[in-house]
Amino acid sequence: MDCEPGEVAALGTNGMDTATSIDGQIKIDSVKGVSVYIEKLNKSFGSHHVLKDIDLEIRSGETFSIIGPSGTGKSILLRHIIRLETPDSGQIYINGEPIFVDGNPLPQPFRSSMVFQSSALFNSLTVGENVGLWLREHRICPENRIRGIITEKLAIVGLEGKEGLRTSELSGGMKKRVAIARSLAMDPDLVLYDEPTAELDPITTDELAETIVSLRKKTGNTTIIVTHDLNFALYLSDRIAMMYDGEIIETGTPEEIRGSSNPIVQRFIRTTTKGIQGV
Ligand SMILES: Nc1ncnc2c1ncn2[C@@H]1O[C@H](COP(=O)(O)OP(=O)(O)OP(=O)(O)O)[C@@H](O)[C@H]1O
Ligand SMILES: [Mg+2]
Q1: C-beta of 227 in contact with ligand 1 (< 6 A)
Q2: Which secondary structure element, helix H or strand E, spans residue 233, and what is its range?
Q3: CB of 277 closer than 6 A to ligand 1?
Q4: Protein residue with its CA nearest to atom 6 in ligand 1
Q5: Residue 228: Cβ within 10 Å count
Q6: How many helices (H) and strands (E) does the chain have?
Q7: 44 by DSSP, 3-state: which?
Q8: At what angle do helices 143-156 and 127-137 cross, to 10 degrees?
Q9: In this structure, which residue's CA is closest to atom 5 in ligand 1?
Q10: Shortest CA distance to 55 belongs to which of 90, 79, 84, 81?
Q11: How many angstroms separate the alpha carbon of residue 49 from the centre of ligand 2?
Q12: Do residues 227 and 63 make contact, with C-beta atoms less than 8 angstroms apart?
Protein backbone atom coordinates (compact mmCIF):
# COMPACT_ATOMS: atom_id res chain seq x y z
CA MET A 1 0.00 0.00 0.00
CA ASP A 2 1.25 3.51 -0.78
CA CYS A 3 1.62 5.90 2.11
CA GLU A 4 1.96 9.63 2.44
CA PRO A 5 5.25 11.28 1.46
CA GLY A 6 7.78 11.26 4.26
CA GLU A 7 11.14 12.79 4.88
CA VAL A 8 14.60 11.39 5.28
CA ALA A 9 14.39 10.09 8.78
CA ALA A 10 16.76 9.21 11.54
CA LEU A 11 14.72 7.98 14.44
CA GLY A 12 16.90 9.21 17.22
CA THR A 13 20.48 8.30 18.00
CA ASN A 14 22.32 6.60 20.82
CA GLY A 15 20.55 3.36 21.39
CA MET A 16 17.41 4.12 19.37
CA ASP A 17 16.31 2.48 16.18
CA THR A 18 17.50 4.41 13.20
CA ALA A 19 15.69 4.51 9.94
CA THR A 20 16.29 6.04 6.60
CA SER A 21 13.49 6.44 4.17
CA ILE A 22 13.14 7.51 0.62
CA ASP A 23 12.67 11.18 -0.03
CA GLY A 24 9.17 11.68 -1.39
CA GLN A 25 6.74 8.80 -1.82
CA ILE A 26 7.26 5.97 0.63
CA LYS A 27 5.90 2.56 -0.13
CA ILE A 28 6.26 0.78 3.14
CA ASP A 29 5.16 -2.54 1.72
CA SER A 30 7.73 -2.52 -1.06
CA VAL A 31 10.82 -3.98 0.56
CA LYS A 32 13.94 -4.45 -1.48
CA GLY A 33 17.04 -6.26 -0.29
CA VAL A 34 20.25 -4.24 -0.42
CA SER A 35 23.86 -5.34 -0.76
CA VAL A 36 26.43 -4.21 1.81
CA TYR A 37 30.10 -4.05 0.91
CA ILE A 38 32.55 -3.11 3.63
CA GLU A 39 36.02 -2.11 2.45
CA LYS A 40 39.10 -1.76 4.64
CA LEU A 41 37.13 -0.30 7.56
CA ASN A 42 39.16 0.96 10.50
CA LYS A 43 38.04 2.47 13.80
CA SER A 44 39.98 3.33 16.92
CA PHE A 45 38.89 4.76 20.26
CA GLY A 46 41.98 6.51 21.60
CA SER A 47 44.78 3.99 21.35
CA HIS A 48 42.38 1.05 21.12
CA HIS A 49 42.21 -0.15 17.50
CA VAL A 50 38.74 -1.75 17.52
CA LEU A 51 38.06 -2.46 13.82
CA LYS A 52 41.07 -3.53 11.80
CA ASP A 53 40.82 -3.45 7.99
CA ILE A 54 37.40 -5.07 7.92
CA ASP A 55 36.47 -6.40 4.48
CA LEU A 56 33.06 -8.01 4.14
CA GLU A 57 30.51 -8.49 1.39
CA ILE A 58 26.87 -9.16 2.25
CA ARG A 59 24.63 -9.92 -0.71
CA SER A 60 21.21 -8.50 -1.37
CA GLY A 61 18.57 -10.63 0.35
CA GLU A 62 21.11 -12.57 2.37
CA THR A 63 20.75 -13.54 6.03
CA PHE A 64 24.27 -12.99 7.33
CA SER A 65 25.51 -13.57 10.87
CA ILE A 66 28.57 -12.21 12.61
CA ILE A 67 29.80 -14.31 15.50
CA GLY A 68 32.71 -13.90 17.86
CA PRO A 69 33.72 -13.42 21.45
CA SER A 70 32.82 -10.43 23.59
CA GLY A 71 34.62 -7.16 22.95
CA THR A 72 35.78 -8.00 19.41
CA GLY A 73 33.95 -5.09 17.75
CA LYS A 74 30.73 -6.72 16.50
CA SER A 75 28.37 -4.02 17.80
CA ILE A 76 30.69 -1.25 16.63
CA LEU A 77 30.69 -2.74 13.14
CA LEU A 78 26.86 -2.78 13.08
CA ARG A 79 26.80 0.83 14.28
CA HIS A 80 28.89 1.80 11.25
CA ILE A 81 26.48 0.07 8.86
CA ILE A 82 23.60 2.16 10.21
CA ARG A 83 25.82 5.25 10.29
CA LEU A 84 25.77 5.85 14.04
CA GLU A 85 29.57 5.67 13.93
CA THR A 86 31.88 6.99 11.24
CA PRO A 87 35.09 5.16 10.32
CA ASP A 88 38.62 6.52 10.66
CA SER A 89 39.30 5.05 7.23
CA GLY A 90 37.64 2.72 4.76
CA GLN A 91 34.17 2.78 3.30
CA ILE A 92 30.83 0.99 3.32
CA TYR A 93 28.90 0.72 0.04
CA ILE A 94 25.20 -0.07 0.12
CA ASN A 95 23.85 -1.10 -3.27
CA GLY A 96 27.17 0.10 -4.63
CA GLU A 97 26.87 3.62 -3.20
CA PRO A 98 29.24 4.91 -0.48
CA ILE A 99 27.50 5.78 2.79
CA PHE A 100 30.18 8.16 4.11
CA VAL A 101 31.72 11.20 2.49
CA ASP A 102 34.56 13.12 4.12
CA GLY A 103 33.87 11.31 7.39
CA ASN A 104 30.16 12.22 7.39
CA PRO A 105 27.19 9.89 6.85
CA LEU A 106 25.07 10.45 3.73
CA PRO A 107 21.27 10.10 3.57
CA GLN A 108 20.31 6.80 1.97
CA PRO A 109 17.51 5.83 -0.42
CA PHE A 110 16.50 2.72 1.51
CA ARG A 111 15.09 1.88 4.93
CA SER A 112 17.23 0.29 7.60
CA SER A 113 16.55 -0.50 11.21
CA MET A 114 18.45 -2.03 14.06
CA VAL A 115 17.40 -3.98 17.12
CA PHE A 116 19.89 -2.85 19.73
CA GLN A 117 21.52 -5.17 22.24
CA SER A 118 19.79 -3.21 25.02
CA SER A 119 16.31 -3.15 23.31
CA ALA A 120 16.25 0.64 23.97
CA LEU A 121 12.49 1.04 24.37
CA PHE A 122 10.83 4.19 25.72
CA ASN A 123 9.63 3.27 29.20
CA SER A 124 7.10 6.08 29.28
CA LEU A 125 5.32 4.68 26.22
CA THR A 126 3.12 1.63 25.83
CA VAL A 127 4.12 -1.36 23.72
CA GLY A 128 1.92 -0.15 20.83
CA GLU A 129 3.26 3.40 21.05
CA ASN A 130 6.82 2.11 20.90
CA VAL A 131 6.08 0.00 17.82
CA GLY A 132 4.24 2.82 16.03
CA LEU A 133 6.63 5.60 16.97
CA TRP A 134 8.53 5.92 13.70
CA LEU A 135 5.37 5.72 11.57
CA ARG A 136 3.62 8.39 13.65
CA GLU A 137 6.63 10.70 13.89
CA HIS A 138 6.94 10.74 10.15
CA ARG A 139 3.23 10.69 9.40
CA ILE A 140 3.82 7.90 6.98
CA CYS A 141 0.32 6.41 7.03
CA PRO A 142 -3.16 7.29 8.19
CA GLU A 143 -3.75 6.46 11.87
CA ASN A 144 -5.97 3.43 11.21
CA ARG A 145 -3.28 1.93 8.95
CA ILE A 146 -0.64 2.56 11.65
CA ARG A 147 -2.80 0.71 14.18
CA GLY A 148 -3.09 -2.17 11.72
CA ILE A 149 0.68 -2.29 11.24
CA ILE A 150 1.23 -2.32 15.03
CA THR A 151 -1.17 -5.26 15.42
CA GLU A 152 0.46 -7.11 12.51
CA LYS A 153 4.05 -6.63 13.74
CA LEU A 154 3.19 -7.58 17.33
CA ALA A 155 1.58 -10.78 16.04
CA ILE A 156 4.79 -11.62 14.16
CA VAL A 157 6.71 -11.61 17.44
CA GLY A 158 4.00 -13.43 19.39
CA LEU A 159 2.72 -10.42 21.33
CA GLU A 160 -0.73 -10.04 19.84
CA GLY A 161 -3.06 -7.95 21.94
CA LYS A 162 -0.27 -6.50 24.12
CA GLU A 163 -0.45 -2.97 22.66
CA GLY A 164 -1.62 -1.38 25.91
CA LEU A 165 1.06 -2.77 28.25
CA ARG A 166 3.67 -0.41 29.68
CA THR A 167 7.21 -1.40 28.80
CA SER A 168 8.06 -1.37 32.52
CA GLU A 169 5.63 -4.31 32.88
CA LEU A 170 7.55 -6.50 30.42
CA SER A 171 10.17 -9.19 30.96
CA GLY A 172 13.54 -8.83 29.21
CA GLY A 173 12.50 -11.26 26.48
CA MET A 174 9.23 -9.45 25.85
CA LYS A 175 11.10 -6.14 25.60
CA LYS A 176 13.36 -7.70 22.98
CA ARG A 177 10.34 -8.86 21.01
CA VAL A 178 8.78 -5.38 21.16
CA ALA A 179 12.08 -3.95 19.92
CA ILE A 180 11.98 -6.41 17.02
CA ALA A 181 8.36 -5.49 16.21
CA ARG A 182 9.34 -1.81 16.30
CA SER A 183 12.22 -2.41 13.90
CA LEU A 184 9.86 -4.20 11.51
CA ALA A 185 7.24 -1.44 11.56
CA MET A 186 8.86 0.42 8.69
CA ASP A 187 9.32 -2.75 6.59
CA PRO A 188 13.09 -2.30 6.43
CA ASP A 189 15.13 -3.21 3.37
CA LEU A 190 18.04 -3.86 5.72
CA VAL A 191 17.50 -5.07 9.27
CA LEU A 192 20.25 -5.53 11.83
CA TYR A 193 19.93 -7.49 15.03
CA ASP A 194 22.45 -7.15 17.84
CA GLU A 195 22.22 -10.23 20.06
CA PRO A 196 18.52 -10.86 19.35
CA THR A 197 18.36 -14.05 21.43
CA ALA A 198 20.24 -12.79 24.48
CA GLU A 199 17.22 -12.68 26.78
CA LEU A 200 14.96 -15.17 25.05
CA ASP A 201 14.03 -18.64 26.26
CA PRO A 202 14.70 -21.56 23.87
CA ILE A 203 11.12 -21.72 22.54
CA THR A 204 11.00 -17.99 21.80
CA THR A 205 14.45 -18.26 20.24
CA ASP A 206 13.18 -20.96 17.88
CA GLU A 207 10.14 -18.84 17.05
CA LEU A 208 12.36 -15.85 16.34
CA ALA A 209 14.53 -17.95 14.03
CA GLU A 210 11.40 -19.00 12.10
CA THR A 211 10.19 -15.38 12.03
CA ILE A 212 13.47 -14.14 10.54
CA VAL A 213 13.52 -16.95 7.96
CA SER A 214 9.91 -16.33 6.91
CA LEU A 215 10.35 -12.54 6.80
CA ARG A 216 13.30 -12.95 4.50
CA LYS A 217 11.30 -15.31 2.25
CA LYS A 218 8.32 -12.96 2.24
CA THR A 219 10.11 -9.65 1.82
CA GLY A 220 13.52 -10.42 0.30
CA ASN A 221 15.14 -8.03 2.80
CA THR A 222 18.77 -8.23 3.85
CA THR A 223 19.34 -9.33 7.43
CA ILE A 224 22.54 -8.98 9.45
CA ILE A 225 22.68 -10.63 12.85
CA VAL A 226 25.32 -10.34 15.54
CA THR A 227 25.04 -13.23 17.92
CA HIS A 228 26.85 -15.37 20.48
CA ASP A 229 24.27 -18.07 19.80
CA LEU A 230 26.04 -20.36 17.41
CA ASN A 231 23.10 -22.75 16.91
CA PHE A 232 20.90 -19.80 15.98
CA ALA A 233 23.46 -18.53 13.47
CA LEU A 234 24.06 -21.98 11.99
CA TYR A 235 20.33 -22.60 11.63
CA LEU A 236 19.22 -19.46 9.83
CA SER A 237 22.23 -17.91 8.10
CA ASP A 238 23.14 -18.12 4.46
CA ARG A 239 26.66 -17.21 5.49
CA ILE A 240 28.52 -16.45 8.71
CA ALA A 241 31.60 -14.36 9.47
CA MET A 242 33.66 -14.85 12.60
CA MET A 243 35.23 -11.77 14.18
CA TYR A 244 38.16 -11.98 16.52
CA ASP A 245 40.06 -9.07 18.02
CA GLY A 246 38.73 -6.56 15.49
CA GLU A 247 39.32 -8.71 12.42
CA ILE A 248 37.23 -11.00 10.26
CA ILE A 249 39.08 -14.29 10.53
CA GLU A 250 36.67 -16.59 8.64
CA THR A 251 33.67 -16.25 6.34
CA GLY A 252 31.59 -19.07 4.92
CA THR A 253 28.38 -21.03 4.83
CA PRO A 254 27.29 -22.71 8.07
CA GLU A 255 28.83 -25.96 6.74
CA GLU A 256 32.10 -24.21 5.96
CA ILE A 257 32.22 -22.57 9.39
CA ARG A 258 31.56 -25.90 11.09
CA GLY A 259 34.34 -27.47 9.06
CA SER A 260 36.79 -24.58 9.39
CA SER A 261 40.37 -25.55 10.09
CA ASN A 262 41.06 -22.20 11.77
CA PRO A 263 41.89 -23.10 15.40
CA ILE A 264 40.22 -19.94 16.77
CA VAL A 265 36.96 -20.80 14.98
CA GLN A 266 37.14 -24.38 16.19
CA ARG A 267 37.77 -23.25 19.76
CA PHE A 268 34.81 -20.86 19.59
CA ILE A 269 32.59 -23.67 18.32
CA ARG A 270 33.77 -26.05 21.05
CA THR A 271 33.56 -23.62 23.93
CA THR A 272 30.46 -21.62 23.05
CA THR A 273 28.06 -22.22 25.90
CA LYS A 274 25.31 -23.70 23.76
CA GLY A 275 27.77 -25.76 21.71
CA ILE A 276 27.10 -27.33 18.38
CA GLN A 277 25.32 -30.40 19.69
CA GLY A 278 21.97 -31.15 18.17
CA VAL A 279 22.51 -29.04 15.05
N1 LIG B 1 32.37 4.67 22.46
C2 LIG B 1 33.41 3.91 22.77
N3 LIG B 1 34.53 4.44 23.33
C4 LIG B 1 35.59 3.69 23.62
N5 LIG B 1 35.65 2.34 23.42
C6 LIG B 1 34.58 1.76 22.87
C7 LIG B 1 33.40 2.49 22.53
N8 LIG B 1 32.50 1.64 22.01
C9 LIG B 1 33.08 0.42 22.03
N10 LIG B 1 34.32 0.50 22.55
C11 LIG B 1 35.24 -0.63 22.71
O12 LIG B 1 35.32 -1.32 21.48
C13 LIG B 1 35.46 -2.71 21.71
C14 LIG B 1 34.43 -3.45 20.91
O15 LIG B 1 33.14 -3.17 21.44
P16 LIG B 1 31.83 -3.85 20.88
O17 LIG B 1 30.70 -3.30 21.68
O18 LIG B 1 31.76 -3.70 19.42
O19 LIG B 1 32.09 -5.38 21.25
P20 LIG B 1 31.18 -6.65 20.92
O21 LIG B 1 31.98 -7.55 20.03
O22 LIG B 1 29.86 -6.20 20.43
O23 LIG B 1 31.07 -7.33 22.37
P24 LIG B 1 29.80 -8.05 23.08
O25 LIG B 1 29.74 -9.41 22.45
O26 LIG B 1 30.21 -8.11 24.53
O27 LIG B 1 28.58 -7.22 22.86
C28 LIG B 1 35.33 -2.93 23.22
O29 LIG B 1 36.61 -3.10 23.76
C30 LIG B 1 34.71 -1.64 23.71
O31 LIG B 1 35.14 -1.35 25.00
MG1 LIG C 1 27.96 -6.18 21.29
Answers
A1: no
A2: helix 230-236
A3: no
A4: 45
A5: 18
A6: 8, 12
A7: strand
A8: 130
A9: 45
A10: 90
A11: 16
A12: no
